[in-house]
Specification:
There is one protein chain. The protein is α+β, with helices and mostly antiparallel strands. Helices cover about 50% and strands about 30% of the residues. It has a four-stranded antiparallel β-sheet with strand order 2-3-1-4, covered by helices on one side.
Amino acid sequence: MKSLRFAAVAAVALACAAPVVASAQQLPVVPGDYVSVSTISVDDGHDLDYINHLAGMWRKGQDFAVKQGWITLYEILSNEYKRPGEPDYYLITRFAKFADPAEEDKREAAYTAYMAMNNTQMQAASADRAKYRHQMGSMLLRSWKWRN
């Protein structure tokens, strides 16, 4: 009798689990791009300085990355109703996949050549911006697309 009850419980458990496994294999979504979000705070009186940087060096580099196929899209969002402790800007970059270490080295060489700056110059420019621009954090998200 005990083995019959055990078999019945096992059969019910398997019957209940089967739809879960089957539905997990048929999710209505598939993974899309990765979405990198940087949160930026800018000191009062320096928005124009930062926007000029974004419109110049940052945009040049992002446009190059799009043309190379390294990223699929980028954008800037401003926080229009900023509350204390929140960022002023969100810098968003979308990309399909991560590069392996060899590819990262190739990309860095191509990027620095295109920007006509070496790493020391880029670090110095970043240090100058750090006087008024503060990266509050970053997130890596994943978009999802509807399955066809």
